[in-house]
Amino acid sequence: MNVTLETLGACKKQMRVEIEAGEVKKAFEDTTAEFGKHAKIPGFRPGKAPAELVMQRFASDIEAESKKRLYTEAFQKAVKDNGLEVITDPDVEELQFSRDGECKVMFTVEVAPQFSLPEYRGLPAQRQNTKVSDADVDDALKALAAKKASYSAVARAAALGDFLVVNYEGSCEGKPITDFNPTARGLTSQKDFWLELGKDKFIPGFAEQLIGVEAGGRRTVNIDFPADFVLSEVQNKKGAFEIEVLEVKERVLPPMDDEFAKSFKADSLHQLREGVRGDLQNERNLSVNRNVRAQVVQALMDLVQFDLPESAVTAETRSVVYSIVSENQQRGVARELIDQQKDEIFAAAKKTALDRVKASFLFSTIATKEGIKVSNEELNGRIMSMARHYKMTPDKLVKELKKNSGVREVVGQILHEKVVDFLQQHAKIDDASA
To answer: Per residue in 34-49, pLDDT tens?
Structure first.
């Protein structure tokens, strides 16, 4: 077998393979013999029909199976002999085929990128030592109190911190906002809408213009839609809202005492404070750790540049787009609005995909060099955890994962996490004040 290797791009190879006539003949003979063992031909017991008759009876099937054998064996040998790390199934182009002569076939594949690993021990990162303060605990308790707040209608002018119940009609440049985007019905008109009078609530500059209004009053609110407003069609345009105030409501917070603490299953306010302090500190520690890991990974990514396989980037981009769309749909974002933002979504997904694919190849290479592997215990533990999360039995989850190479993806996730653990353990981390 003769192989001619051609590079089509950084990660694409083309192999032109010539298979000798003797190998082609042997493949046909072996395949014919296999068919003959099970062929049902009138007048002959299974396995006793002459090879020539078997060939005549099953000519097209034998040829297809012979080609499959020849091409598979030729491809595997060519990949091995050339030391290629193939990441896609090959595109196969038959150049020449004769049962009695040589065969020529061309395989086009994508391969893993070739690059030199940078120095990945001692990557720099800063760790912010953040201790939860009494003020942090006070703010958290205020947030808890807000969940228990009651709202009382008041017969006075609205003040900062109050809530208004309003009806409104919104327009942009004198036209209903739905003229700019048909899905913006909620921004164009609302009944019994609750609005908090706080800085930059609802739309920047909106709530401040309603301070001093009373129940039964009407007011026109003029605003400039921000450049980053969620509705791109009205960005940087002027808007107006006709407001009818139905009620002014004052938020009444419960007293901070032991009874308040008991509503959150604590025995006393002191115990609630300490519990909140512990939760905040754990969250802070997790956030700091995530930040350090992100810095270490980014430092590694910045040290090396290499071309990425197009198929891997395309597949990952498709996956990221699916995740973004699914997340927005779960949040209640209209399909029409998602479609209007498809270019921005694709651009963001492509950037994320490029980073993920690059990191994947870097992590895999480091794992190989450092002997980092995933044990069966680690895989089983992750599957058990996932099964609990999805409320499925582990066996059922494994079956679902096997349908689309999901088990391999889980192994990859664990492996990459272990590589980042390794990088973090060997990083040069400087402590900084908050």
So the answer is: 888 877 777 777 767 7
